[in-house]
Automatic annotation (TrEMBL):
UniProt similarity note: Belongs to the glycosyl hydrolase 3 family.
Protein name according to UniProt: Glycoside hydrolase family 3 N-terminal domain-containing protein
Organism: Enterococcus sulfureus ATCC 49903
Pfam families listed in its UniProt record: Glyco_hydro_3
Keyword field: Glycosidase, Hydrolase, Membrane, Transmembrane, Transmembrane helix
């Protein structure tokens, strides 16, 4: 009996260990099933909270409207200035004024290697809270900033007239795509072309920069270039509305255009209308005084001219001024007043070297109601939409 008792005790011990083992396994399996979702849920909440904090601290809203709502008046006003690159404090001014973009001129690319230009433009983008428009007049022929430096382009960009003579519109389209690829490689996202002016007089100031053909052929050219630039994700700019025609040079004097509005509609407006239909991103307004539209003020600061663009030609993109330093405007109005006047007239971008004195005036006008914040927001939205279309902003 004693031996049998010991055997029974050993057997019961094994049974007890087995039960405890099974119970432990069941407990841990149950614990995994009940606690793991809670842990994962906590992780999801934690991650979501972290993302919300990051979004808030870095001011990266999901939509353009959200971006605008999160911006200060100073930040919004800065976005409306497409500034000529200053001689000094280039990085400091981007940060201080929240500039919407920089326009490169010949002096900004002289003597630079490909790597140096890329690094220079990259430094601008890294300094900016919102990616900048980087513009460069690359019409080809007489007006091409990169062509002044053989280290940047092996062959100068040809003029529209030269390309048209060589192979018509297809040759221009091919050149546009190659040019766009070059611009993109440097970080230039706005080439500030095509020239949509109709000029048939070889003696006219603007003639050599145009296609040199009639309104319909010029319209076909403008539409083709606009579409090619859109495909290549480089911004298009139709210029110089309402159209230079065969007039004089507003770079050096105040120019008055005496043509009738009907003539402008039948000729000069035609390429702009075709370019708008093709999806033009922006239109640049000249400083010419067009007497049949507004006999008192240059087109760039005339509300009537801008009303035609919006209401008659149905353009919804970015409207910008020509260079505010040109005599056609600078001899008409002080630089201090010019920036505000241009925005009040309906421009979305001011191309200026005097942004440091113009921006404070615009901010003050917003604060005292002379420049409605609703109008400011509408212009900022157009500028940010252009940047998004160019792939500069995340959707």
């Amino acid at each position: 009996m004693k031996g049998n008792g010991i055997k029974a005790l050993i057997f019961m011990s094994f049974v007890l260990v087995f039960v405890l083992l099974i119970g432990g396994m069941w407990y841990f399996m149950h614990e995994d099933q009940t606690t793991t979702p809670t842990t994962e849920s906590s992780q999801v909440v934690s991650t979501s909270s972290s993302e919300t904090t990051t979004t808030s601290s870095e001011s990266k809203p999901k939509t353009i409207d959200d971006r605008i709502q999160a911006m200060t008046v100073e930040e919004k006003v800065g976005q409306l200035f497409f500034a000529r690159v200053p001689d000094v404090q280039q990085i400091e001014d981007i940060k201080e004024y929240d500039l919407g973009g920089y326009v490169l001129f010949g002096r900004d690319v002289q003597g630079l290697t490909e790597r140096q230009l890329k690094d220079k433009i990259l430094s601008y983008q890294q300094a900016s809270k919102i990616p900048m428009l980087i513009g460069s007049d690359e019409e080809g022929g007489l007006v091409s900033r990169l062509s002044t430096n053989p280290q940047l382009v092996t062959e100068p960009f040809a003029s529209p007239q030269t390309l048209y003579a060589q192979g018509g519109i297809p040759a221009i389209v091919s050149d546009t795509k190659q040019k766009a690829d070059t611009l993109r490689s440097y970080g230039i996202n706005a080439g500030l072309f095509p020239v949509a002016d109709v000029a048939t007089d070889p003696q006219a100031f603007i003639y050599d920069r145009t296609l040199g053909q009639d309104a319909q052929l010029t319209a076909d050219y403008v539409a083709a270039v606009t579409k090619a630039l859109k495909e290549e994700k480089v911004g298009s700019t139709l210029k110089h509305f309402p159209g230079y025609g065969d007039n004089r040079d507003s770079h050096v004097e105040i120019v008055t255009d005496t043509r009738s509005l009907e003539e402008l509609r039948q000729v000069d407006f035609v390429p702009f209308a075709k370019g708008i239909e093709a999806g033009a991103d922006s239109i640049l307004v000249s400083h010419n005084i067009v007497s049949s539209i507004d006999p008192t003020e240059p087109a760039s600061i005339s509300p009537v001219v801008h009303k035609i663009l919006r209401e008659e030609l149905h353009f919804n993109g970015v409207i910008m001024t020509d260079d505010m330093d040109m005599a056609g405007l600078a001899d008409f109005i002080s630089q201090d007043e010019a920036g505000l006047k241009a925005l009040q007239a309906g421009n979305d971008l001011v191309m200026s070297s005097s942004y440091d004195v113009q921006i404070p005036v615009v901010i003050a006008a917003v604060e005292n109601g002379d420049y409605p914040e609703s109008q400011l927001d509408a212009s900022v939205k157009r500028v940010l939409q252009w940047k998004q279309d160019l792939g500069l902003l995340a959707n």
